[in-house]
Design a protein that fits this description.
alpha/beta; seven-stranded parallel sheet; three-stranded antiparallel sheet; 13 helices
């Protein structure tokens, strides 16, 4: 009794699948061997996957969070998520080991993605400082590093925006555009005077040309500007920020839990990239992790203030659990 066409098709599909996946023949080699066209072989392999004859599974080694990254990207409409394995005893936002891990991931991302002609912006903070400490030199052509926030904190600090911008410029062998002004001024009139300075104007003009911006994501509990002993802001400004429903900041642009601009007077006293300019950057890379940063990272994601997130696996898990529960 002749075999049905269905059984012949199943046999042929199975044969093609075995040759392709087990014997590792190319599609052209299979076509030549079975006297088929190459497009026919391709169609049979697709049909094999559809019918369940081929079942592909991917096994991830320990410390690889590709599936978690994919879920984050889908949930928050990210271009990319990069997740590091946090050491549990040192998972606070101020933990040195966590900062080193995040900084290493940030440096690897920059190394992989930087291209000729890029204009790269940087803010300030200890996580970006950690990124500069571990990054290897990568000479580039026709690139420019731009400081996007005036000086905050003691000038000798390595987390200072000037030091971070200068170090990155050296590593990339790029041009450097500094923002020669304090990050916070005392009143609006002082800001207007500084914005009229030729060198400050030159830096501000480049903000619209920045295609990649590297930022830390600040939490109110970890932001050194909000510590009274720092004398960066007045007690009145501090109270204003704490009353504004802010949960975090990017480059001192404070935002609420929905990622919307928090209503605080400080916005009018900052010399740096504005909230609106931040949202216009093609790719904003946010680097942050730890329990204290959870609300600020979540707010930044909800407001789509960042396009790439580099964080630790426990924070990533919590972000997804929180949004899926809601």
């Amino acid at each position: 009794m002749p075999r049905s066409s269905d059984s012949i098709d199943v046999r042929l599909i199975s044969k093609v699948s075995l040759l392709y996946y087990h014997h590792e023949l190319t599609q052209q080699e299979i076509a030549d061997r079975l006297n088929l066209s190459r497009p026919k072989v391709s169609r049979l392999l697709k049909q094999a996957r559809k019918q369940g004859i081929i079942q592909i599974s991917v096994s991830f080694p320990n410390g690889n969070f590709v599936d978690l990254e994919s879920r984050l990207e889908k949930k928050f409409n990210l271009k990319e998520a990069l997740i590091v394995e946090a050491e549990i005893p040192d998972r606070s936002a101020g933990g040195r080991a966590l900062k080193q891990q995040l900084g290493t991931a940030g440096a690897e991302y920059l190394h992989r993605t930087v291209s000729e002609g890029d204009t790269i912006g940087v803010t300030w903070g200890t996580t970006l400082q950690a990124m500069m400490e571990v990054m290897h030199p990568k000479p580039t052509r026709n690139t420019n590093v731009v400081q996007t926030l005036g000086g905050v904190g003691p000038p000798e600090a390595r987390a200072h925006a000037v030091d971070i911008a200068r170090r990155l410029s050296q590593l990339l062998d790029s041009r450097l555009t500094l923002l020669p002004a304090p990050g916070i001024v005392d009143h609006k009139e002082a800001k207007q005077v500084l914005l009229s300075d030729r060198r400050v104007k030159e830096a501000f003009k480049l903000f619209s040309k920045i295609n990649t911006l590297y930022v830390g994501i600040g939490a109110l509990s970890t932001n050194p500007v909000l510590v009274r002993e720092s004398h960066e802001i007045t007690d009145e400004l501090l109270r204003d920020i704490l009353k504004s429903y802010a949960v975090g900041d990017i480059g001192l642009n404070f935002f609420d839990e929905a990622g919307k601009k928090a209503g605080t007077v400080l916005h009018d006293l900052i010399i740096g990239m504005t909230f609106e300019e931040l949202k216009n950057v093609e790719t904003v890379v946010g680097i942050a992790g730890g329990e204290e940063k959870f609300k600020s990272i979540l707010g930044a994601l909800r407001g789509q203030l960042i396009d790439v997130l580099i964080t630790d696996h426990q924070t990533a898990d919590r972000l997804l659990m929180n949004e899926e529960r809601n």
